[in-house]
């Protein structure tokens, strides 16, 4: 791993400060001058690294997407990803909270910045294609209750996408998005969408996901999921 140069560290500080301010105040209430003041640097120093606020927002979106992508491992196969699905979904909801301004403002942000819209749409297409491929692989190992066409698989994945794109905003109105348990509940909502399509074998594999959960609260949710799969099999 190459050592981080001062310029890299400054860019990271700018991104971290901007994310914090965007999350707390909304992007429309945060200027580049405010970000620079938060960091104790001059506006000119900030502009040396980022030309405008839109470029910072794009970089944060790409950063979040990169973290999301890293939770899925194409090398461990369909069974491995299904086993890790709940822990991956929990991590995805945590990332949604960490970058919550994106979810809250994605419509406005993509209308303002056509380049961000192109990036968002390409990301959506790639993830949808990967999800459909995973569905086909799950079918091939008998993890699905019945054969699912690519059209149905695509529709299910769109439903999953919509849950993730709106969960934090939903909690803004109906719950408390600062409660980590409520945030992680989004993972269980996604599993509720997917569960009816899984066979007894698929549910058994999914029930092993507790091995990868990283906290006591997650383990409790994993236990609940395992009991649910046992009830379905019986």
Q: What key attributes describe this structure?
A:
234 residues, mainly alpha, Arc Repressor Mutant, subunit A, Tetracycline Repressor, domain 2, 77% helix, elongated, disordered C terminus
Structural class: mainly alpha
Tally of structural domains: 2
Number of strands: 0
Strand content: under 5%
Major sheet summary line: none
- CA radius of gyration: 20 Å
Q: What's the CATH class label of the largest domain?
A: Mainly Alpha
**Architecture of the largest domain in CATH?**
Orthogonal Bundle
Counted by DSSP, the helix tally is: 12
**CATH topology value of the largest domain:** Tetracycline Repressor, domain 2
H and E order: HHHHHHHHHHHH
Describe this structure in words.
The longest helix is centred in the middle third of the chain and has 27 residues, at 114-140. The model is unreliable at 210-234 (pLDDT under 50). The protein has 12 helices and no strands. Helices cover 77% and strands 0% of the residues. It has 2 domains: 1-51, Homeodomain-like (Arc Repressor Mutant, subunit A, Orthogonal Bundle); 61-233, Tetracycline Repressor, domain 2. It is mostly helical and 234 residues long. Helix 2 (32-39) packs across helix 3 (43-49) and helix 4 (53-70) packs parallel to helix 8 (114-140).
